[in-house]
Amino acid sequence: MTDSFPLMGFVRSVQVGRIAPLGPEAVLSGFVKTPVQGCVEVSLLGLAGDEQADPEVHGGPDKAVYAYSLGNYATWSSAFPQHRALLVPGGLGENLTIDGVAEGEVCLADHVRIGTAVLQVSQPRQPCFKFALRFNDLTMPRAMLKNGMSGWYYRVLQPGSLSAGDEVRLLERPHPQWSIERTNRLIVQRRGTAAEKAEFARLFSENG
Questions:
Q1: Residues linked to residue 20 through DSSP beta bridges, in sequence order
Q2: Residue 166 burial (CB count, 10 A)
Q3: Which of 7, 176, 22, 4 is nearest to 93 (CA)?
Q4: Which residues, listed in sequence order, are joined to residue 117 by a DSSP beta bridge?
Q5: CB of 123 within 8 A of CB of 184?
Q6: I need a labelling partner for 147 at 20 to 30 A (CA). Which of 25, 67, 104, 183 fits?
Q7: Residue 48 above 70 pLDDT?
Q8: Per-residue confidence at 199, pLDDT binned at 50, 70, 90?
Q9: DSSP 8-state symbol, 135
């Protein structure tokens, strides 16, 4: 029974985006997402209707679905009140806005069930210049690197469908010591110890 697995939160909204010009130089991007009502199909490459302009750095099997914590938005709005209108679910380019869990409670390689799809946490997001273009603010990517509120990517282990309101159930947690928060501190912020870096390197070699 699904109820026997720990509850990690709820999907509050689902967003997809088509490739469109972004910023004053009209850079092509799928950053801007809009909410989707009802069930959305999830394939190995992500949500139906979602597009990425640069598949070398966005999307693909290891970045199929991008999730973000709803709770982070209040902190962003407090730090950047001038961007409050854009700092709403989907505003940071995520496919799934999840309530009840954040980077400190999500671990690398977690298996979760959302709707009928099974997803696996693959990595944290590292913001690129398109994040700055969306907000017309060069300080935003740097702020994400510093505050660690990156969200996380899922790969799709079992295609299915999902929708807003679905539970996020934890099925398996092979690496409880490696939260997204800790991974950001070690890899993105480069604050890890030598022992941590060696442990992380072993983890990556074991898990491809």
A1: 29
A2: 21
A3: 22
A4: 114
A5: no
A6: 25
A7: yes
A8: confident
A9: H
Contacts 24+ apart (CB under 8 A), 91-94: 92/68, 92/131, 92/151, 93/17, 93/31, 93/32, 93/33, 93/66, 93/131, 93/134, 94/15, 94/33, 94/66, 94/67, 94/68, 94/151
pLDDT above 80 (res 79): yes
Distances (CA, A) of 168 to 7, 93, 176, 197: 6, 20, 17, 30
Q: What is the DSSP letter of 107?
A: B
pLDDT tens track for 138-149: 999 999 999 999
Residues 6 or more apart whose Cβ sits within 8 Å of residue 69: 97, 98, 99, 101, 102, 103, 149, 151
Question: How far apart are alpha carbons 123 and 180 in whole angstroms?
Answer: 7
Q: Which amino acid is at 50?
A: D
φ/ψ (deg, to 5) at 43: -105, 180
Tokens (6 digits) for 119: 């997803």
pTM: 0.94
Asked if residues 53 and 26 have their Cβ atoms less than 8 Å apart, the reply is: no
Grade residue 177 by pLDDT with cuts at 50, 70 and 90. Answer: very high
Better pLDDT: 157 or 195? 157
In 70-116, DSSP assigns E strands to 96-99, 111-114
